[in-house]
Amino acid sequence: MNQECLLSVENLKTYFFTKSGVVKAVDGVTFSVSPGEALGIAGESGSGKSITCLSLVRLVPQPAGRIVGGKVLFQGEDLLIKKEEEMRELRGKTIAMILQDPLTSLNPVFTIGNQVGEVFKLNGDKKWKTIRAKAIDILNRVKIPSAEQRLNDYPFQFSGGMRQRVLAAVGIARKPKLLIADEPTTSLDVTIQDQFLRLLKELQQRTEMSLILVTHDLGVVAETCDRVAIMYAGRIVEIGSVERVYHAPAHPYTNALMKALPKLRGRTKRLYQIEGEPPNLYDLPSGCRFHPRCPMAKDICREKYPPEVLVSGGGAAACWLLVNGGNHP
Amino acid sequence: MMVVMEKRGSNGKVPFFHRWRRTRLRLRRLPILGIGLLMPIIVCGIFGPAFYPHEPTQMNLAKSLHPPALLPRGEWSYFLGTDQLGRDLLSRLIEGARVSLIVSIFGVALAGLMGVSLGMIAGYFGGGLDHIIMRIVDMMMSIPPILMAILLAASLGSGMMTIILSIMVIFWTGYARVIRGETLSVKQRDFVTLAMVTGCGRVRILMKHIFPNLVNTALVLATLQLGRAIIIEASITFLGLGLQPPASAWGLIISEGRMYLSTAWWIPTFSGLAIMMTVLGSNITGDWLRNALDPKLRRI
After folding, report:
1. Contact present, B219 and B289 (Cβ < 8 Å)
2. What pLDDT digit, counting tens, does each position of B134-158 carry?
């Protein structure tokens, strides 16, 4: 199975060392992505989704953040022990990223053509004419109308959705093997969001690249991804195919999330609500991190973190209820 | 500010009418007052010798302390009057324009070069380097500018190079502070992260992504400092540490004329006015430049 993996993350740990203590933003995350697959990473804010992504390309905010352990195997090579120059070579070329906020991710003082063109310049293209032609081509592929004329426009002349498309163009320009999209649709409204996700899906399928989509919107995951990983307080609590996780969630947290989603059919009652608040990352609860809020918590949940257990129907979840048939004192 | 979206024809080019309209709009916004004040000084600075009514150093003791033309006893050939040695004031002011411009432009440019590069390095790399650079800035800022100029003049001797050096030493700290702050804020912005994930190196990010966002600030600061630099230059020459007689510099003219203030008010007044014109002109032009360089307003 390891042979097929494009990316395999093992026990990744990224901590932030601050004056008031150590924040374990990512604390032992393990997952893998096959070629051409779309993996969704979902979780509430502060659960470590974005930091996981930044750790993959080794761009954790310095100097407080540091990757303290684990492996990130990309095509069999550990990215965490590579030299910085080798990483730079890799970024953008084989692993690309789309950032959260399209409104601030483009440099306001350069034209769109200039910024899209820079990617090709980094790729080694010298002639302005070929760069321009390639920029027009890539903007056409992300469906920006009259790309040739809009090349000379500045970012402020683009709408949010258009800017996100430009960012997607920058992302896919060098035909990466893996595209990481960190909440690409959070700042777009729903119709534009839908358009953009369709575009992303289409680009992914056409170029056969892998996609990691980070979001807190379970609907977005369902629409775009093949598999989903649910994160809670720096760990993945459940991972599996979208179908299985949505229809038969194994972990109580996932289950609670699904119950909290409004349904289109049936009578609308008050939505389900998870009691309590996400844990303070400075001071994590002992044992399973979800136990203070878990309706089915047992004694053992307070003491030890549960092992990952394979779930019937594919995937895995980390919960004591799945161990030993749930028979714990 | 009004933003006019440009209209494009079917071939993607801007039709003539709109192009003309845009040009007109841009022209209407030119700082007439600023340019009007600055232009005569610049023209005098470049083509000075062509306008001398008299040789600036030519003395005529018979005509000493002659009043300006419009006053009783005034003569048209000595339009702004003469100084204590009978030299034509207008000619001396024209010659002084050249000195002031050279000194302030070179001084401010050198200060900018030094301040912007050090500020960018401090802001971008941070850490110990930042501390060292910024503490040097604090140290330099705590020394009064004139004292610094006196120190430099004492060690290097007086002359034009000394003034340029003093202006650089006095002004680079201002740039460094402002540019460091701007760099800190620009490097936090998402497009820098985007450049990082696209695989740009540090130097490329600093020069291609951060620097262009700072040019604006640096240019505006430069035009504002140009005014102050001229005042510093005048002060240094006034104290006798800059150019030496018989050369003409505005500060020197004021300093020589202050003894005759009660009888010949025109000597310090007109040289003071020349200084004021330059300072005000460069400040107004600087304000205009700030707006003109804003990319949101640039393409109107």
Report:
1. yes
2. 999 999 999 988 888 888 888 888 7
